[in-house]
Each structure stands twice: as C-alpha cells, then as structure tokens.
Design brief:
single chain; about 120 residues; mainly alpha; 5 helices
Amino acid sequence: MLTGLWKAVDAMQNTRLNRLVDVTVDRLSGWLRNPWRRLSVLIISLLLGNYLGTAVSLVSGQRGDWDIVVAAILVALAELISFVVYRQKPETARSLLLDCLNALKVGATYSLFVDAFKLGS
C-alpha cells in the first residue's frame, strides 16, 4: 500500500532516511495486518470522531454566526468521505485509512446526534 509510494519516491536516491522510512512503513503495515490490532485502531478512530464531534459542536456553539457554516462543512466532509469509502465494490477490501476515516465520520455523526438529543431534552 504505502510501500509502493515510498519505492517510487526512493528510486531517485537510497539514503538512510529513505531506508528508515521504508523499514518503519513495512513494520507498521505488518503490525496492522493482525485483525485485533486493526479493530483496535478502528475503535480508537471511532472514539476520536466522537471527541471531535463534541469539540466541534462546543466550539462552534460559542459563536452563533458560525453554526450554519460549520454544519455545511461537516455535511460536505461526511458526504465526501462516504462517497470515497462506498464507491468501491463490496467484495474488494478497503484500506485501513479509508476504514479509519469512515469510523471517524461515524463517531462524529453519533456525537452530534447525542448532543442534539441532550439539547432537546
């Protein structure tokens, strides 16, 4: 996945920094091939999205004139992430980065719904 990109970049010159980045990316991708580690990274992304959704709603709520702009940006980002993630065929495997972005989006959306229910009651 990322190693192909680094191989293309490092075709020009094989420095110690390039080799260090190659080894680090290879080890990280090997470490994330374990399904339990992948699941833990996805859960962390979900919780981070939950935190970011709460933070965005609190920060934008301080200024009343930013609510509509922030809502439009969040909807556009959510739709863009959904378009990128779900345009692939179901039988193809998605990358970890796309799954993390999707989990981040789901966590932020969930957080915004929970905040809306708290304000409604």
